Amino acid sequence: MPAIEIKHLLNNRLSDNDISLLLCVLYIPLGIIILSLRAILLLGLFLLAQILPDTKNVRKFISKLACLAVGITLQVENCKTKEAVNVYISNNLSIFDQLIISTATGSISPSARTTLERVLGLSSYCFTNIGNLDKFKSNVNKFIVENQTPLYFAPEGRPTNGKGLLKFKIYPFEFTSKIQPVCISIERPYLDISVTSIGSSYLSDILYFMFCPTTNYKLMFLPPIEKHDQTDEEFADVVRRQIANALKIEPTNYTSTDLAEWEKRKLAEDQVRAQGRNTTRAFNPEIQRMTVQVKEVLPHVPFNVIYIDLCEYRKLQVIPKFSS
């Protein structure tokens, strides 16, 4: 199997399929009504999160309300495989993965966004900023010793579209010698709208969750894995490959930093292209001749796209606007 390219790890928000786009347009009036009703429920959830104490039963209750408020349904496979471990590890597909894992396991997710995530019922706990890794590890170890609550980590570091697994961050594998992997898959019936996308924000992802009719999560618990004579890096790789094999996807060599850098470049390139297409400037005969030559080799690529790319490559500021 050829290695997956980094550009295949993120989707655009909407599908290019004409039928899917038409369904989205027709759904907009109903979607706005559903979003408004869920916003009211989310406001009530905000008030409850400020009033009720932060206990295990309250977290469980708020998590269920949060799932309802953002239109999430949950199906769990292999329930009998789930064990009482200190750490659960999963792939990362959306901003609400920790809400789903918390609902299924009662776990806590280390986070710095305590206010917003507690409002959304995401069962997070602030162990200090991850930038101060030594203090973070110390606080996590202390929490594990003093509490009977498991922890959940998504060591990819950021959501993808699930076509491949990013390299895992190592620190979640330093806290225990026994980890239970969990596989997450997501479906959105009726509407082909990605749960996250290129350039998406935390707020936009939440709004699309509330806009769509439903977002269906499926969890599959894998047998727990114990670390024997392995290093933390080797242990992380074993867990990652187990998740990748169960999901039938590829463990890639990309990190969350690599994906973030590619995303920045992609957004910048798209912006330049958009500006180029909307700008009428002087015509350059030399670039036109080169474009014709490239067009002969790549007949499926539009003429104006080739011209704009050549102008950018040559650092020219003369980009004409072509009519279709």
Characterization of this structure:
Keywords: Membrane, Transmembrane, Transmembrane helix. The protein is of the alpha/beta class. It folds into 2 domains: 251 residues, Glycerol-3-phosphate (1)-acyltransferase (3-Layer(aba) Sandwich), CATH 3.40.1130; 55 residues, no CATH class. Helices cover 46% and strands 12% of the residues. The protein has 10 helices and 10 strands. Strands 1, 2, 5, 7, 8 and 9 form a 6-stranded mixed sheet that branches. A two-stranded parallel ribbon has the order 3-4. A two-stranded parallel ribbon has the order 6-10. Helix 4 links the parallel strand 3 and strand 4. Helix 1 packs antiparallel against helix 2 and helix 9 crosses helix 10. The chain is globular and about 75 Å long. The two termini are 39 Å apart.
Q: What's the CATH first level of the largest domain?
A: Alpha Beta
- Count of helical regions: 10
Task: Specify the biggest β-sheet.
Answer: 6 strands, mixed
Q: Globular, elongated, flat, extended or rod-shaped: what is the shape?
A: globular
Order of helices and strands: HHEEHEHEHEEEHEEHEHHH
Given helix and strand content, the structural type is alpha/beta
Distance between the termini: 39 Å
- The percent range for strand residues is 5-15%
CATH-scheme architecture of the largest domain: 3-Layer(aba) Sandwich
The CATH topology name of the largest domain reads Glycerol-3-phosphate (1)-acyltransferase
Mean pLDDT: 82
What percentage of residues falls in helices of 4 or more residues? 40-55%
Total strands: the figure is: 10
